Amino acid sequence: MSLKQAFTIFDTRRVVRLLCITWFITKLICYKLWFADRLFPVIPVNDLLLGLPLWTHSFLFVVSLCAMLSLVFFPNKKTALILLLAELLSCMLDQNRWQPWEYQFIFMLAAYTFINEEKSVRSYWQLIIAGLFFFSGVSKLNNGFIHDIWNNLVLRRWLDISTINSWTSRAGYALPLMEMTAGIGLLIGKTRKLSIWGLTTMHIIILCMLGPAGLNMNIVIWPWNILMPLLLFSIFYQQSLEYKQAILYKPFAWFVLLCWWILPWLQLAGYWDKYLSAVLYSGGVEQLYICTDDPVAKKEMAGYMDKEFKVVPCSPVLSAYKWGMMEMNTAPYPEPRIYKKIIQAWNKHYPHFENRYYLYKPGFTYMVKQLLTDTYK
Q1: Cα(232)–Cα(17) distance, rounded to whole angstroms?
Q2: 87, 169, 270, 350: which is deepest, by most CB within 10 A?
Q3: C-alpha distances in angstroms, 36 versus 126, 305, 336?
Q4: How far apart are alpha carbons 339 and 320 in whole angstroms?
Q5: In the prediction, which pLDDT does 352 show?
Q6: Cβ distance 141 to 173 under 8 Å?
Q7: Half-sphere exposure in the Cβ direction for 9 (13 Å, CA)
Q8: Which residues touch 371 (CB under 8 Å, ≥6 apart)?
Q9: What is the pLDDT of residue 239?
Q10: How far, in Å, are 1, 20, 201, 203, 206 from residue 226 at the CA level?
Q11: Domains in the chain: boundaries
């Protein structure tokens, strides 16, 4: 069977199977994220939800996994609705679960659940994926990406290039420009296949860099990077882009356009969340660091402390990012309101000694800002 024939017969049920397999594996990798019995604070959308019993988180986790397995073997909209509700409820119980892949999977599942016509479902998926790549590129057009990701992660750590001149550094700007162009190219018939191959190459390179043969880091995004080329070929390769006028009159269509093509622009001004705007490895994201004199805290958190980080004026220092990655296998949700809740939880758990908090923004000229503790009581 030719490549053309293989992807011509690829239908929505097969995409749902792929989606659920990837989702299932990803949730197992970061399983502690979905439980409440952990050191890293659980941060619901409203503090009233903190009163729910701990087993609620575990129950929703099991329901989701069972629904995913069921959809792998028997794709149907009723089970998809159960999965969708379980995931939405679970995400309400902890905002750290609003990971970029979770956001994408929920929207794709919602399109499958609520839209009956198969071609319309595919059209929504196309809009979601194209928007993801476009705004992922937009978010990388900054000095933070060049400093943190291109220079330090790609050139120095992965390729072991120690000497970087200005032209080598500036070449990094080509990457977000190509990703943005490919995202738009997915929606244009003449450039669709070229965009698919370009983005597939990008994901292969990412897997080589972050995978076991490379830096062997951030394992939670490996399954997503394997899935995305499969989605590109199955949803775009031999599928015409059919946006019937009738689709534009459906509320779900406008909801997809709002969340994937309009609201992400507001992130540039700080009025929309980064992870809901496809901010993926963009660099320059502020990170929370915690200094404490509490010997109990130092003992309990010893595995997450960093003795080598000299930018913040204490040693050892606790990085919230490192803490989240080591305990939950995912990064904490990088928004000020989340950092505020982490600080409040820390002050409540360790109230008897001095605690100090710093925001560190990496870059060519980094920024360190001490947060006033009284603001976070």
Answers
A1: 15
A2: 87
A3: 35, 22, 21
A4: 9
A5: 81
A6: yes
A7: 5
A8: 343, 357, 358, 359
A9: 64
A10: 22, 13, 11, 7, 10
A11: 1-114, 116-285, 287-376
CA 94/CA 57 separation, integer angstroms: 9
Number of residues assigned to the chain? 377
* pLDDT tier for residue 7 given thresholds of 50, 70 and 90: low
Alpha-carbon torsion, ordered 230, 232, 233, 235, to 10 deg: 110
Per DSSP, 244 falls in state: -
Cis peptide bond N-terminal to 336, omega within 30: no
- Other Cβ atoms within 10 Å of 352 Cβ, number: 9
Residues 149-173, mean pLDDT to the nearest whole number: 93
Q: What are the structure tokens assigned to 4, written together?
A: 């053309």
Confidence class for position 354, pLDDT limits 50, 70, 90: confident
With H, G, I as helix, E, B as strand and everything else as coil, classify residue 229. Answer: helix
Taking only the tens place, the pLDDT of each residue in 92-124 is 999 999 999 999 999 999 999 999 888 889 989
Three-state DSSP class for residue 50? helix
356's tokens:
């100090």
Asked if residues 324 and 40 have their Cβ atoms less than 8 Å apart, the reply is yes
Q: Per-residue pLDDT averaged across 348-370, rounded? A: 89
Which residues fall within 8 angstroms of residue 235, CB to CB, at 6 or more apart? 15, 122, 125, 126, 129
215-218: long-range contacts (C-beta < 8 A, 24 or more apart)?
Answer: 215/153, 215/157, 215/158, 218/325
In degrees and rounded to multiples of 5, residue 106 shows phi and psi of -65, -45
Statement: residue 36 has pLDDT above 90? yes
